[in-house]
Specification:
GO terms for molecular function: GTP binding; GTPase activity; identical protein binding; metal ion binding. Its cofactor is K(+). Keywords: Cytoplasm, GTP-binding, Hydrolase, Magnesium, Metal-binding, Nucleotide-binding, Potassium, tRNA processing. By secondary structure, the chain is α/β, with parallel strands linked by helices. The chain folds into three domains: 107 residues, Probable tRNA modification gtpase trme, domain 1 (Gyrase A, domain 2); 145 residues, Up-down Bundle (Four Helix Bundle (Hemerythrin (Met), subunit A)); 171 residues, Rossmann fold (3-Layer(aba) Sandwich), CATH 3.40.50.300. 43% of the residues lie in helices and 16% in strands. The chain is built from 15 helices and 13 strands. The strands form two sheets. Strands 3-4-5-6-2-1-7 form a seven-stranded mixed β-sheet. Strands 9-10-8-11-12-13 form a six-stranded mixed β-sheet, sandwiched between helices. Helix 11 links the parallel strand 11 and strand 12. Helix 6 runs antiparallel to helix 7, helix 7 packs antiparallel against helix 13 and helix 13 runs antiparallel to helix 14. The two termini are 16 Å apart. The protein binds the ligand Nc1nc2c(c(=O)[nH]1)N(C=O)[C@@H](CNc1ccc(C(=O)N[C@@H](CCC(=O)O)C(=O)O)cc1)CN2, guanosine-5'-triphosphate (GTP) and magnesium ion. The site of the ligand Nc1nc2c(c(=O)[nH]1)N(C=O)[C@@H](CNc1ccc(C(=O)N[C@@H](CCC(=O)O)C(=O)O)cc1)CN2 has 8 residues, from loops.
Length: 466
């Protein structure tokens, strides 16, 4: 990286200030050609000290382009670990472009998307998980996602993966000793320490993989669909969850036709909630289309709230027609006020709890009254539990990233094979290959063994100037 790159680091459009940054060996010299402490020049020739803020003017052939602040940051104590210069100018596309063009004419090259962060990685200031965390911070859609990305940015995931990888390197070195010096190691060497080490790394891989879906929910948000027969109170629940009158509620069955969608956050996690048309057999053309759309949303949902009301019965056939069985689902028994008083005592003469087919036995259930605002907080807690599970929000390492999951899954299968090899006394050479493969796969997560293709996919998804 012996050239110097430059880019506008702030978004296009007007704003308070705009930042242009440069990184590379000539960054300070290039900036100095255009910088003066006074409006009339001459260019600053003194020594620009690192991590100091200089007030002055950006001049193009003696003409003031803007009043700016200039910050030199000498490597390795900089974002890229190279010499970095930031120029803070007034924001506005024309000003920033003009300054950038001067820097390019002065010897800098326009940076590729993500190239600053790529340099930070190539200069080993950060690893790949931290580079990915930078992108996740920029794209975070919720406070929860931001918290995990920030933890990853400080190296939480890197350290865990490195620990696992080091543990395997230990095992591999034992194996290699017995390949190289077979006479020094008793043949019937006790493999239990090695299997224990492999087991512990496998457990940690499994734990990351198990939490992957929950971690994705944090990052991407969760789609909830409220569905059920007409008039059970779906729209009433929608409005309760949103705390506003979004959907029309009437005593008439068939009120909701089009799916009604709205975004909200619960416990810092983004949700998109969809209220759908009541599903039943009908000849009404509008309702038929509404029901088709309801089913599309049910298929696309991460969690289906399947609503039923007291005094009704549902056959297995009816149930299967409404929701696919493989869905993450919560049965919401609404209008519980009709069967129970506020103390939970059965109301004499009131309708009984809905009768559900046996296949619903395993599905979690919750009782609420959307009309009387009862059981809404327990419902929210249940939704969180079903989607996020035991993922604690303490910012510990998670893998909200398919690349990590794929690498861990492959590493796991090599470790499985290595463990079998150990137990069945297979040749050390085969064992060593399995171990090396899993070590490389863990290394690909942090970037120690990542290919150029992986780097390109990661950094090309960044914006220019990052
Ligand atoms: N103006 C500005 N604001 C910014 C950034 C930036 O580059 N410029 N950042 C860009 O993303 C973020 C801050 N991230 C940064 C991370 C590391 C270093 C850095 O210079 N690290 C060196 C020196 C640390 C030190 O002096 O203690 C290092 O780690 O060696 C700078 C910014 C957000 N805000
Ligand atoms: N007693 C009682 N009535 C409720 C409750 N929740 C909703 N209702 C009433 O049930 C009726 C239907 O409510 P909606 O929310 O429109 O029901 P829906 O499932 O959206 O109906 P469709 O859109 O027609 O499928 C309205 O009269 C509501 O006031 C509840 O918890 N208890
Ligand atoms: Mg409705």
């Amino acid at each position: 990286m012996n050239d110097t790159i430059a880019a506008i680091a702030t978004p296009f459009g007007s704003g308070g200030i705009g930042v242009i940054r440069m990184s590379g060996p000539d960054a300070v010299a290039i900036a100095a050609q255009f910088f003066s402490r006074t409006r009339t020049g001459p260019p600053f020739t003194g020594n620009l000290k690192t991590h100091q803020v200089y007030h002055g003017y950006f001049l193009d052939s003696g003409e003031v382009i803007d009043e700016v602040l200039l910050i030199p940051m000498r490597g390795p104590k900089s974002y890229t670990a190279e010499d970095v210069v930031e120029i803070q100018a007034h924001s506005g596309t024309v000003v920033l472009k003009q300054i950038l063009e001067c820097l390019l004419s002065g010897g800098a090259r326009l940076a590729d998307p993500g190239e600053f962060t790529r340099r930070a990685f190539l200069n080993q200031r950060i690893d790949l998980t931290q580079a990915e965390a930078v992108a996740d911070i920029i794209n975070a859609r919720s406070t929860a996602a931001l918290k995990f990305a920030a933890a990853q940015n400080t190296g939480a995931l890197k350290h865990q993966i490195q620990e696992m990888r080091n543990q395997l390197i230990q095992v591999l070195s034992q194996v290699e000793v017995s390949i190289d010096f077979p006479d020094d190691v008793p043949r019937e060497n006790d493999p239990s320490q090695s299997t224990a080490d492999i087991d512990s790394v496998m457990d940690r891989c499994r734990e990351f993989i198990r939490q992957h879906e929950e971690a994705c929910f944090l990052k991407e948000g969760i789609c909830l669909a409220i569905c059920g027969k007409p008039n059970v109170g779906k729209s009433s629940l929608m409005n309760r969850l949103l705390s506003k009158e979004k959907s029309i509620v009437t005593a008439l069955p068939g009120t909701t036709r089009d799916p009604i969608q709205e975004a909200m956050t619960m416990n810092g996690i983004p949700f998109v909630v969809t209220d759908t048309a009541g599903i039943h057999d009908t000849d009404d053309l509008v309702e038929i289309i509404g029901i088709e759309r309801a089913k599309d949303h049910i298929r696309g949902a991460d969690l289906v709230l399947f609503m039923v009301e007291p005094g009704t019965a549902l056959s297995e056939m009816e149930f299967k027609k409404m929701v696919p069985l493989d869905k993450r689902m919560l049965v919401v028994v609404n209008k519980i006020d009709l069967t129970r008083d506020t103390n939970g005592q059965a109301k004499p003469g009131g309708p009984g709890l809905p009768e559900l087919p046996e296949i619903c036995d395993q599905i979690p259930k919750i009782h609420i009254s959307a009309l009387h605002n009862q059981g809404i907080q327990p419902l929210k807690d249940k939704i969180m539990q079903l989607c996020i599970g035991d993922l604690t929000m303490d910012g510990s390492a998670v893998i909200p990233n398919l690349r990590h999951k794929t690498a861990l899954t492959k590493a796991l299968s090599f470790l499985e094979s290595a463990k079998q090899g150990l137990l069945t006394g297979q040749p050390e050479e085969t064992l060593a290959i399995d171990l090396k493969n899993s070590i490389d796969l863990l290394g690909s997560i942090t970037g120690e063994t990542a290919s150029i293709d992986i780097l390109d996919t990661i950094f090309n998804n960044f914006c220019i100037g990052k």
